[in-house]
Every structure is written in structure tokens, then in C-alpha cells.
Fold this sequence. Notes:
The protein is mainly alpha-helical.
Amino acid sequence: MTPAVLSVLPMHPAPLAPALAGLPATFTPSTTAVGGNVYLTAAVGLLPLVVFFVLMGVFKVATHWCAIISLVIAAITAITLFHMPVGMTVMSATQGMALGFVPIVYIIIAAVWLYNLTDVSGRSKDLKAVFNVIGKGDMRAQALIVAFSFCGLLEGLAGFGAPVAIAAAMVATLGLPKLKAAVVVMVGNAINVGFGAMAIPTTTAGKLGGQEPVSVATAMGHLTWVFCAFIPLLLLFILDGARGVKQLWPLAIVAGLATGVGHFFTPSISYELTAVLASLLGLAASYVFLLVWTPKTPDEYRSQVAADDTPDRERVILALLPYILVVVIIATTKLWTLGVNLDKAFKATDLPLKWPGVYGQLLNAKGEASKSAIYTLQTLSNPGTWIFLTAIIVTFVYAARSVPGKFEMSVGKGFATLAKTCYTLRMAILTIAAVMALAYVMNFSGQTSAIGAALAATGAAYAFLSPALGWVGTAVAGSATSAGALFANLQATAAQGAGLDPKILLAANTIGGGLGKIVSPQNLAIASTAVDAPGSFATPGAPCVCSASGVGSGTYFSAENCDPLPTTAPRHAHSGGKRSPRRESTSSQHKCVLDGVGHTPTEACSKPIADK
């Protein structure tokens, strides 16, 4: 060993690892941590994501195990290849988990409980009857309106997973297969994500990218209206293939163009309200159009209400109460400025927490403490709080208007439903916590930023890759706001280096982030849980498990909670478990699973099994 080498080796205990001397170790993420090469570093950084989607899509591993395994891989990669301190890696994961619990899980529990109240009270049948009238008895038209317009309205007001949770549950209530209900809502919601929660993702991207948010929003609106015009057609294709497009394209065009007009013009007026006003325009246009136009509806997609059980005005109001009330309450908390600005007042109650083991030790490129290590505990500014309030009000109203034997409800039953909801969501909660921990380990260690830097290094071609950066950020973190916070500055810097307009790239980043949410593990967990089909995205096309009291919580199977089999044949009565060679009607056949064997409801769904 040469003297030159010996001279740089630590010869005294003091200069050894600071942690050994009782001092906190600092860490600055590097985009060239692996082999001094940004592309190699990005390839290594992608490994946890590749593992996640391969396990879920190829090997059909349960989503929570996909997330946990990917988290372990990301942590090992961060420590061994990105040289992140072990303690900081662990604490980064805990910060991600905290964000997963509040606001995300908090909102999901509130939203699913709100929907479950309509179910346990018996009001869900009346809700289905309401949409049956609006959609002219066509389940595809009803699903289109809910997944595209109503979900967009909720996205503009609340965001953070609540719209997907509520809308997916509503679409499933219409009678569509649960997996299809979840997919159509996620795709329909994507274009409004950038303007979600009063356009928080757009505001974040603009401020961190050094541009006026209204300029970024305007650029977005000049792009998103095109997506709005054809997304309803895509939703119809998801719902019923080419036949659905052929039979319902006029409604899709009306809804899409009306929403697109809102996206194009609203940002220059009040960009925070883009998704809200655009979705209202689409909803109103669809309703008016269906007053004068009736679609051709196949028998298997025709929803009907018994003539002797048509809901009166009070039943209609009570069925719609949870959803109308949640929109009114959240809109009030976001928009009320008379005398007091409620939004600012509620945000003032947020509690910023400097995350231990990370804040002050995680440094940015300037050597300053990263502000990403500050966790904000939302209370009154959290949409989940107001969804919970809505659910409590609905519980008392439903209890007051209880009808024994039909719409039977009590306050105790309402709150028991909350407890059952939490239990049913237990695996989804684990999944979301693991996914958010994964996101934070990847973000803080530099794995995600390395992916972004590799894309930005492509020069002028980056203009075509810019949306992919937002897509990756949201696919990992489950939040377009997080993607903007992570990549906005990088987008602006890359734009200047390539001679491109920063506003356009920031807009592309935010739009791409919305589209990335479709495949975000967090969003998949939210949607599948909302329709009571956890893990369904890991096993597409698998038959449902019938359960009288929710996933994993009942001892008796019940055909009532099964997904209907896909159908094309006319409706007919269920006949002793015999099937036609053709695909059965939605009302005639369900498929249950008992010890891995397919059975009809009369054969097996009443048989008890041990709860596993």
C-alpha cells in the first residue's frame, strides 16, 4: 500500500463514521450513485418498480406482498448502492407510512364508510334506480356519467383517493362486474387528477418550477381538452367493447366535448375550479342530451326497477343524500370566503412535523436540509374529516327515517358499519402503507430522481419524454402532487437547457402524472377495495368469492355479493344451477368459489366454510 493511499485513510477514531461518534450522518442523494453513471443508476432505481409490477401482473402475487417485497428491495438498494444510512432509510419508510395513514387511508375509510351506509340501510337500490332514470335504463350510460363526470367533480373538490373510492363503489352498485367498475373509474378520473383537490398538483408544479400556476394550468387546459374528448369513448370500449362505442358514441361525444370546453376555458378564470366546473358541464350536458336521445340497450345492460317499488321523492333524496351532501360540504370548506376564508383557516390548523432521523440529515444539492422531510399532519384541511362528518350526518338522518323491514337503520348500526369497514380494509391499509414507504425510500435515496435525470439527459427529445417523468413519479408515489414536487424543478431546468418552454413541460409533467395514477399501486388498492374486491388486479378475470359479510369476515357464502358473469344473452330466471352454453344474464348466474371449485349459488353459496 503506497504512502499516498495511507495518507487518506482515517488514522484516529474521531473521523470514523459520524454515527459512531454520536453525531447524525448526513446524506445527499446522487443521480450517479451507481458506477458514476446516470443511466446505470436509473436502471438500478427502476428495479423495485419492475419487481412490483412483475410480481403483481405475471405471478399474480397479492398486492400487499408485492409492495412489501418491493419495499425491502428498495431499502437494500438504497443502503448498499445509493449509500443511504440505514437509520435514515428506515425513518424515510416510516414517514411514507405516516403519509399513507393520514391523509390517504383516513380519506379512504371515510369514503368507503359513506358508501357502505347506503348499502346497509337499503338505500343503494334506490340510488341504482335514480341512475337508471338518468341513464335511460342503460348501465353503460350510467357508468359513464358516474366514472367520468361525477368522479371528476369529486376529484376537483377532494382528491387524495376519495373520488375513486366513492365513484368505484357507486359504479359497482349499478350492477357491473366489480373489476370493470374499478377500471372504468380509474381511467375516467385520470384526466382530472392534475386539477384535483382545487388544483393542488398544478399549484405545486408551478411554484416549484418557477412559473405562475395559472400559466401552467392554462397550458394544461389547452392540452387536456383533447383527452377529454376521447376518454368517454375509451370508457365505453372498456365497458362493452366496440358494441358499446357504436351504440353510445353520441353521449360520449357530448360528455367529452362539454368537459373539454371546461378544461380549455376555466383555467384562465379560476384554475382551481377547472375540474369542478368542467365536470359539472359534462354532467349537465349528459343529462340534457339523454332527455332527447335514447340509446339502444342490449338486454344484459338494461337496468330495471320494479314498477311497484319505484322510489318516491323522499327516497330519491335520501339515496342521493350522501353524495350531494359530501359535495356541498367539501365545496364549502374549499370555496367559502364570505367573512372568513375557510380553506386558509383550516390549513392554518395543519401541524408540520420535522421527521426524526431524516430532517436535518437529508440534504439537497445545495447542502441545505431538505424540506421534503417535513410531514404535515392535516386535520381540518383534510377532506377525510369532512367526509367523516358527512357520514355521521347521514347516519343520523337514515336512523331518523328508518323503515322497519325495508330501510331499517339505527345510529348503532351506522357506527358498527364503520368498524366493519375498517376491518374489511385491513389488507388495503397494509398495502397503501407499504407503497408509501416504498415511495419515500425511493425518493429520499435518489432512486426516483435518478430515473428523472436519465430522461432529462436526452436533450431536445426530452419534450416527448417529459410526460413520462410525471407518469413515473405518480406511479411510484400515488400522488400527482408528489410527482410535481419531485420533478418540477428538474422539468424547468431541462426545458431551459433544451430551449423549450418550461410551462409546457410542467403542464406535461402534471398531465402525465394524472395518467400515471391509473397504474399507481396505491390507486389500484383504493379502487379494488372500494368495490370490495381486494387483490382483484393481481388476478384479473378470477371468479369472485361470495361472502355475506364482506371479504374474509363471514362464515357463509351469499350469492348477493358476487360479481355477475359477463353477459350477452337475454335475461332469464336462474334454473337450478344449469348454464346455457352462451354467456349468462347478469341476473341469472353468479359464480362462487368453494375450496377452489366453481359452483352456482344454489349449489354452494349457502354452505358454511371456516373463516381463514
